[in-house]
Amino acid sequence: MTDTPMISLQHVDKTLGGRKVLDDLSFDVERGEAFVIVGGSGVGKSVTLKHIIGLMKPDRGHVVVDGQDINEMKEVALNRFRRKFGMSFQEGALFDSMSVFENIAFPLRRQTKFREQQIVARVDECLDLVHLDGVASKRPSELSGGMRRRVGFARAISLKPEILLFDEPTTGLDPVISDVIAELIVEMDRTLNTTTVTITHDMKVAFKIADRVAMLYKGRIVEEGTPEEFQQSTDPIVRQFIEGRAEGPLTE
Ligand SMILES: Nc1ncnc2c1ncn2[C@@H]1O[C@H](COP(=O)(O)OP(=O)(O)O)[C@@H](O)[C@H]1O
Ligand SMILES: [Mg+2]
After folding, report:
1. Residue with the nearest Cα to atom 20 of ligand 1?
2. Whose CA is nearest to atom 1 of ligand 1?
3. Which residues pair with 197 in a beta bridge?
4. Is the full-model pTM beyond 0.90?
């Protein structure tokens, strides 16, 4: 079992709003791997993540996670299944009416029978893992963008997930803070021994985090490989994206 992929998308089709967003999409993510999906806006990156956690089901094809096919799971099983995942959404999606502490404690209160003392200890541990100090009683709105992202990460890891998903973790941050956040993702992946899937349109972030990079275009993977292999791609679509040029097949 342990050499089967952690995540396997097999010939997935998905039509949304009358448009085929995923078109025969297939890829595998190995256990422990840091997999990064890049692509322009609207190509279906977030839709792909939603399939991985079973928030969307394919019209055709299979999504198999840790040997389980999400098509075959009912809602109750899916809810249990989702505990495998820690998800950090774009912008952090924190509750602004709650303190940082309560934001991170939220999944623990909902999903565990931890006593208050255990909750305090676990929140502390999570804040430590993301290198945040002295902010537990603050509101998210009192923090910088980079710090809010860290709080989102701390919440995502509170239940000790096997798989971490990051949707655009550095969007809206300046280049320096983006780099710091990318480094934190690498560090978390190593320390926590997780499988990670990160979605980004920032190539610098992608190359820093990835064991393997895949580019999504027109509903499927047009190129994949290690950062070194990916950087040497001769595919004109990939070249235009990496180089951030206005002219090329992406803008025709
Ligand atoms: N629930 C939905 N209903 C209809 N269309 C959707 C839905 N979710 C996403 N889409 C469409 O699917 C396409 C891909 O969306 P998305 O995966 O969010 O793109 P991105 O690559 O920027 O993350 C977009 O055209 C979007 O409008
Ligand atoms: Mg998206």
Report:
1. 42
2. 16
3. 35, 165
4. yes
- Alpha helix ranges (H) inside the chain: 45-52, 75-81, 100-111, 116-129, 145-157, 175-192, 203-209, 227-231, 236-243
Point out the ligand 1 atom lying closest to the alpha carbon of residue 199: 23
CATH, domain range 7-92+163-251: 3.40.50.300
Structure tokens given for 237: 């679509």
Condensed to tens digits (0 to 9), the pLDDT of residues 80-108 reads 899 999 988 766 689 999 999 999 999 99
For residue 58, the SS3 value is coil
Tell me how far CA of residue 250 lies from CA of 17, 199, 221, in angstroms: 22, 19, 14
Q: Please give all residues whose beta carbon lies within 6 A of any atom in ligand 1, as ranges.
A: 16-17, 21, 39, 41-47
Residue type, 197: V
Window from 22-26, 53-57, 202-206, 247-251 with minimum mean pLDDT: 247-251
Q: Which amino acid is at 141?
A: S
Distance 44 CA to ligand 1 centre (A): 6
Q: What DSSP assignment string belongs to 97-118?
A: TS-HHHHHHHHHHHH----HHH
